[in-house]
Write a structure and sequence with these properties.
The protein folds into 2 domains: 216 residues, Alpha-Beta Complex (Quinone Oxidoreductase, Chain A, domain 1), CATH 3.90.180; 158 residues, Rossmann fold. 27% of the residues lie in helices and 23% in strands. The chain has 11 helices and 17 strands. Strands 3, 4, 5, 8, 9, 16 and 17 form a 7-stranded mixed beta sheet that branches. It is globular and about 60 Å long.
């Protein structure tokens, strides 16, 4: 089969790989119909995630058709059209029993730090991802779900990570009616977090980024106020002014380890890798939240220590909530929102890239060219 293969930082290509096989009675093999490139994939592409091994296939957002099932699989059969959450999880451990599927203790030798995820290095279990023609899906009875007949494929693929994660970020904020919410980062997750904040009762939503085309999408898609931090000498001060010098009730960090905004932090955290990524967005979140407010962290950071202003967080009495999204737990409510027209995930899709051209897709996405917001990968085009 054809698959995207990692060959080192900034080096990927499409190669012929062995077809995945049933390795456990509860496995399934899925023929990928659509995949996506996530902003988190760029951390891998840029060499920021430890133990990203040469030969790995990325891609934790994908949907497809069941090609084969193991002898223990009861809930799926060949030919089923399925969406697969990015979490790999067993469904029965201490954490899965509590709905914390992203913290599963049985799918990753490094489970004390992170659960399992498709295509996200051996730090997350070493599972190959869906930027390929076929993918092995472990624990097939608990992860994949049949795609509803009424749901479009492009909506479905964005429900495997981007939309649930953004929605989860708003949930973590414990938004109350009338709250002011600031979202740092206008990528797909940030845009979904902003749109979801309205559904949870926000009275005001502000999105911060430095790319004008993404801020335009925030106004159009999420109906948010926007600030381009590059236009202000001190974006924290501007946001304080905009909130009566109190700060926001809720701040959502949807930028993570590669956030721009500080040359020094970007060089030490991203280029030299002396920190677990640039902490600038998280520090802005701590600074712009009001005393007693809540900071929700969705952005991915590496395991190395970072220069986080934790003393300020403590003295302000902030509540900090964060996790990888337990995707399947969000689906029932999100299916309702999509079916009722409150959210249309595919509105963020800007590029549809054949698998054979995926290296160009990564370059466009990494360099923020051509107005790109969310690229979809089409394996059959190869």
């Amino acid at each position: 089969m054809h698959a995207m293969v990692y060959r080192g930082p900034y080096k990927i290509r499409v190669e012929e790989k062995d077809m995945p096989s049933i390795e456990h009675p509860n496995d399934a093999i899925v023929r990928v119909a659509l995949a996506a490139i996530c902003g988190s994939d760029l951390h891998l592409y840029h060499g920021l995630i430890p133990d990203t091994r040469v030969g790995t296939t990325f891609g934790h957002e994908f949907i497809g058709v069941v090609e084969e099932v193991g002898p223990s699989v009861q809930n799926l059969k060949k030919g089923d059209r399925v969406m697969v959450p990015f979490n790999v999880y067993c469904g029965s451990c201490y954490f899965c029993a509590r709905g914390l599927y992203s913290n599963c203790h049985n799918v990753n030798p490094n489970a004390t730090a992170v659960g399992g995820a498709y295509g996200y290095s051996h730090t997350a279990g070493g599972y190959d991802g869906g930027q390929s023609e076929f993918v092995r899906v472990p624990f097939a009875d608990v992860g994949p779900t049949l795609i509803p007949e009424w749901m479009d494929d492009e909506d479905a693929v964005l429900l495997t990570d981007a939309l649930p994660t953004g929605y989860f970020g708003a949930q973590l904020g414990d938004i109350e009616e009338g709250d002011t919410v600031i979202v740092l980062g206008a990528g797909p997750v940030g845009l979904f977090a902003a749109a979801s904040s309205w559904l949870m009762g926000a009275g005001r939503v502000i999105v911060v980024d430095h790319l004008d085309y993404r801020l335009a999408k925030a106004r159009e898609f999420a109906h948010a106020e926007t600030y381009n931090f590059a236009e202000y000498p001190d974006i924290v001060l501007e946001l304080k002014k905009a909130t009566d010098y109190l700060g926001a009730d809720v701040v959502i960090d949807a930028a993570g380890a590669e956030a721009d905004g500080s040359f020094l932090q970007h060089v030490t955290g991203v280029k030299l890798k002396l920190q677990g990524g640039s902490p600038i967005a998280l520090n802005w979140a701590l600074d712009t939240a009001r005393k007693g407010g809540t900071v929700s962290v969705l952005g991915a950071y590496g395991p190395a220590p970072s220069g986080i202003k934790f003393g300020d967080a403590m003295n302000k009495g902030l509540t900090i909530r964060t996790n990888q999204c337990p995707v399947k737990r969000q689906w029932p409510r999100l299916f309702e929102h999509v079916r009722n027209g409150y959210l249309k995930p595919s509105e963020l899709v800007t590029h549809r890239i054949p698998l054979e051209h995926i290296a160009e897709g990564y370059h466009i996405f990494s360099s923020k060219l051509d107005g790109i917001i969310k690229p979809i990968v089409v394996p059959q085009a190869s």
